[in-house]
Amino acid sequence: MTTLPQQTGRKLGLVIDLDTCVGCHACVISCKGWNTENYGAPLSDQDVYGADPSGTFLNRVHSYEVQPEAGAAQLVHFPKSCLHCGDAPCVTVCPTGASYKRVEDGIVLVNESDCIGCGLCAWACPYGAREMDQAAGVMKKCTLCVDRIYNENLPEEDRQPACVRTCPAGARHFGDLGDPDSAVSQLVAERGGVDLMPEQGTKPVNKYLPPRPRDTLGPPEGEIDVLAPFLAPVDEGPKGFLGWLDRTLEKL
């Protein structure tokens, strides 16, 4: 089994703002594109135009409708990928050492040449962040675009994960969460960033910024009936015989 480092030089990871994410899936598409054309074996798809299409994705966005204690329901978009946990069970369960956590920056990777596709790491991951590539027969996961962030041939602004670079809403942030003075650490402190499923004890590096309370207008309960102007009666006058009599007398 693979062992985890006692500590890492840095804790590179993502901070995802659930208040800003609009669920456009731009991060999903850019991740699929970059990791299909560059790092490791391509991310394959099966039966793309058939009745039961499937494919390998390292980043997915789930959408949930939640009902706050007060106010209208909200639609929350929840991006999810590998969280590069400090105590990663996917690493310690790997029988070949293919899954490992880097000492220098804390990124969790898979050595595809050593992966036998047993799937134990996928079973051990409580977040469902690993996917078996059906064509390659190896386990795939988010690499934090390790081939981008250290690539000196790229402009400085492009040396960040593809999902972060492409997010049109600025909902994704990348940096060293082990440095309390880094921009991502300060953002987590200011907004009260949280771990995903902390009860699992995996110590995820990635953090989530919770949605901000929504502004309320109108009555004290904060509800606005947007259809009220259209549902209001058009004619407030008398109905039936009295209405006919009233309209007839107006013509005299």
Automatic annotation (TrEMBL):
InterPro entries: 4Fe4S_Fe-S-bd (IPR017896), 4Fe4S_Fe_S_CS (IPR017900), ET_IronSulfur_Cluster-Binding (IPR050954)
Keyword Ribonucleoprotein: no
Ranges of residues in domain 4Fe-4S ferredoxin-type: 12-42, 73-105, 106-135
Record keywords, A-Z: 4Fe-4S, Iron, Iron-sulfur, Metal-binding
Domain of life, source organism: Bacteria
Keyword Metal-binding carried by entry: yes
Gene3D superfamilies referenced in this protein's UniProt entry, alphabetically: 3.30.70.20
Protein name: 4Fe-4S dicluster domain-containing protein
